[in-house]
Specification:
Layout: H1 2-22, H2 26-41, E1 47-48, E2 54-59, E3 88-93, H3 99-114, E4 119-121, E5 130-137, E6 148-155, E7 158-161, E8 164-174, H4 178-181, H5 184-194, H6 219-228
The protein binds zinc ion (ZN).
Zinc ion is lined by residues 54-56, 189, 193, 199, 209.
C-alpha cells in the first residue's frame, strides 16, 4: 500500500512535468496574472508629494494697500488641492525653539483653532494623522542691496491615497532676524502654509508674501481654509 501510493505520486509528478512541457504558456499566463494584479494595486499605493516651502519676507518699503473683497479664496498649495484631508492636526516644537518663537506660534495656533475650521492639538501624531512641526533656522541674506530678508519658511507635504491626503506640515522662523521674524504675523503666515494656504496677492491676507503685520485671517483666507477642509 505504502509503495503503491509512492508510485502514484511519481506518476502524478511526471504528469505535471508533461503538462508544463507541452503547454509552456501556462507559466507566462501565471506571470501575467501576477503582473495584472500588481497593476491593479497601483492606485492604492502611497505616492510621496514633494515638500513645498514658501517663505515670507520683510521689507522697508510699503506696498500699495490692495484689499480683497467678496468671495475670493486664498490659493491652495498643490499637495492639498482637490484632496480630502482631516482637519485635526497633532503638533510639536523642535527642542531648540526658544520661548519667544514658541509664543508667537502658540498665538497663531490659537487664532487658527478659533476659526473652528481646523483643530491643532499639542500631541505626537500617529503615522496616519496630519501633523505639524514648528522649528527655527538661521539664514543670512548675503545680498545686502536687497530690500527684503527671509523671515520664515513653511509648507505642506502630503502622502496621498487616491484623493485622500495625510499632511505633514512645517512652519519655521528665521532667527537671524529675530526682531523682524518673531512676530505673530509671520507665525500666522508660516502656519498658513503648513495648513495648505498659498500666497495671496492681497495685502490684507496673512498670506501676502511680504510681511504687512497682518494677524487676522481675511475672508479670503477663511474661504481658502474652508475649501481645503470641506467646511
Ligand atoms: Zn510665504
Amino acid at each position: 500500500m505504502r509503495r503503491h501510493s509512492w508510485i502514484t505520486w511519481l506518476i502524478l509528478l511526471a504528469g505535471v512535468f508533461v503538462v508544463v512541457e507541452t503547454h509552456p504558456q501556462i507559466v507566462p499566463k501565471v506571470k501575467n496574472e501576477i503582473q495584472t494584479t500588481s497593476t491593479k494595486m497601483q492606485p492604492y499605493l502611497f505616492l510621496i508629494k514633494s515638500n513645498i516651502d514658501k517663505t515670507i519676507s520683510g521689507t522697508t518699503t510699503k506696498t500699495t494697500n490692495e484689499r480683497q473683497v467678496g468671495k475670493v479664496a486664498t490659493p491652495i498649495e498643490e499637495p492639498l488641492k482637490n484632496m480630502n484631508t482631516a482637519n485635526t492636526y497633532y503638533y510639536h516644537f523642535k527642542n531648540n525653539v526658544p520661548q519667544n518663537a514658541r509664543q508667537v506660534f502658540q498665538n497663531a495656533i490659537y487664532s487658527y483653532n478659533s476659526t473652528g475650521i481646523v483643530r491643532l492639538i499639542p500631541q505626537k501624531a500617529e503615522p496616519n494623522q496630519n501633523n505639524i512641526i514648528f522649528f527655527i533656522y538661521h539664514k543670512k541674506i548675503e545680498n545686502i542691496t536687497s530690500s527684503t530678508v527671509e523671515l520664515g519658511n513653511g509648507g505642506p507635504s502630503a502622502l496621498q491615497l487616491n484623493n485622500y491626503a495625510i499632511n505633514s506640515g512645517r512652519a519655521g522662523l528665521n532667527m537671524t532676524y529675530p526682531n523682524m521674524s518673531v512676530k505673530n504675523s509671520v507665525a500666522m503666515h508660516e502656519l498658513g502654509h503648513a495648513l495648505g494656504l498659498g500666497h495671496s496677492s492681497y495685502t490684507n491676507s496673512v498670506m501676502y508674501p511680504i510681511d504687512q503685520g497682518v494677524t487676522k485671517l481675511s475672508e479670503a483666507d477663511l474661504n481658502g481654509l474652508k475649501k481645503i477642509y470641506n467646511h
